[in-house]
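Supplementary Methods. Inverse-folding protocol.

Structures were first reduced to a discrete structure-token string of length 248. This string, shown here, constituted the complete conditioning input.
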């Protein structure tokens, strides 16, 4: 790894960790970057999990220090997500490089469109055990399956399920999201490790940036105007990455 590559990983990691905590889309930046640096799609997918785990640890710790609760409910929701993530990680290792890149481009395009859609203003209420229906657990399994397979844009799915379906406040959605992602990413990372698809040097440098970005995301109170600028900047970078993938 060259110094320039390390600086690129560190910088993109900060941006990815920041936007992952505030909304979603960080892996749309980090996964292609790892591929551009020469890692195979499978190795990039596995290496990206190192960053996700460590930035999630940093975000969860910050949320807990800030007074976030509902750890028990998050762990309940994590159970089906873990099952899905194990299956998803295994499936990702079975597909060809060309198919994985095609899925990545399609997912990035779909996620970009979803990011453009305005969030409806809902009457939110706290999550309770009674509201955890079989449909919710099935949705968590599906999110885990998707996250285990590719992870890109998974935060958008959490917003759909936790905010739109369960009508949880967006601030609480972020707290639930980072803990559930941490829990299901650990076994997914283990699957990639067993199959020798993790490059620790790249992963740890990327993780250092992501942890700093996640910490900033928890600490910084971004105004609505600032959040809009972050969204549009992220979308611009995503479009550039998609063009790079399409053009080879």
């Amino acid at each position: 790894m060259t110094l320039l590559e390390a600086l690129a990983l560190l910088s993109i990691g900060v941006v990815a960790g920041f936007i992952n905590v505030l909304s979603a889309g960080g892996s749309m930046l980090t996964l292609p970057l790892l591929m551009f640096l020469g890692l195979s799609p499978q190795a990039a997918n596995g290496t990206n999990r190192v960053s996700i785990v460590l930035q999630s640890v940093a975000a969860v710790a910050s949320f807990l220090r800030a007074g976030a609760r509902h750890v028990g409910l998050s762990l309940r929701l994590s159970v089906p997500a873990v099952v899905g993530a194990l299956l998803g990680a295994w499936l990702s290792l079975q597909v060809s490089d060309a198919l994985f890149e095609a899925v990545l481009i399609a997912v990035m395009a779909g996620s970009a469109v979803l990011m453009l859609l305005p969030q409806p203003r809902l009457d939110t209420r706290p999550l309770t055990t009674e509201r955890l229906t079989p449909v919710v657990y099935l949705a968590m399994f599906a999110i885990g399956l998707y996250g285990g397979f590719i992870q890109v844009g998974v935060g958008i799915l959490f917003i759909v399920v936790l905010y739109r379906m369960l009508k949880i406040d967006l601030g609480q959605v972020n707290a639930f999201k980072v803990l559930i992602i941490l829990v299901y990413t650990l076994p997914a990372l283990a699957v990639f490790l067993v199959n020798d698809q993790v490059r620790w040097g790249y992963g740890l440098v990327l993780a250092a940036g992501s942890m700093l970005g996640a910490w900033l995301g928890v600490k910084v109170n971004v105004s609505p105007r600032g959040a809009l600028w972050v969204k549009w900047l992220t979308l611009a970078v995503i479009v550039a990455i998609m063009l790079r993938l399409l053009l080879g």
